[in-house]
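User: quick one, fold this
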Amino acid sequence: MDISEIRKHLPHRYPFLLVDRVLELNLGESIVACKNLTINEPFFNGHFPEQPVFPGVLLLEAMAQAAGILGFRSMNKTPADGSMYYFVGADDLRFKRPCVPGDQVMLRAKILSDRRGIWKFAVSSDVDGALCASATILCADR
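Assistant:
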């Protein structure tokens, strides 16, 4: 999926759209997407000016957005249909490696369960095969 298709399946827009491309999508199962980090990103001006680091909370959001695409596509819904996908929780969140300008961050999500509109995903991110972060997240379809 390119950015035009991604924008159909996420309500987010610049500067908060954090998925640049979907590389693999297995409906009802998993997704692999990417976020290309450049020094031009607005958050790098303050986080941190001399040693820019992608904020961990935004890395978590990027992983959640990838999971959201997987959920929307698996349900065959879009925000235009009136469906909204809310990030409602995270467990076992761990940050292992900082992400910096120039990194291509791979965003991965797998569906663990779907019960009454509450989806549970295993998410992770990596750069060049080195784990950056992982978590179990919950999203609600409303």
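User: anything notable?
Assistant: The chain has one domain: 3-141.
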